[in-house]
Request: fold
Amino acid sequence: MGRAVNLWKSNETSAAVEYRYGPDHDHAGRLSIDKVSGVVTGQDPVPGMTPDESWFLYGMLAKAKAEKMFKSQDYPDEAYMAT
Reply:
């Protein structure tokens, strides 16, 4: 079974960038990337799912994509990752 996640930038400062992530805009969790340390913090799970379900289906992929964005220092308005 493949999995996919979309990410949409919702806020950016000089210190951090925040993304909504999930299958669509109406069902999206939230995470942030510290631009200095690269730490990715999951702040909200995808609504309608338990935190564990959200993490398994979308959060792990969203975090992996966020870590790639930090390494490249490129924070696009929209991003996508699939397995």
Observations:
- DSSP finds one helix and five strands in the chain.
- Residues 17 and 80 are 16 Å apart (CA to CA).
- Residues 4-82 form one domain.
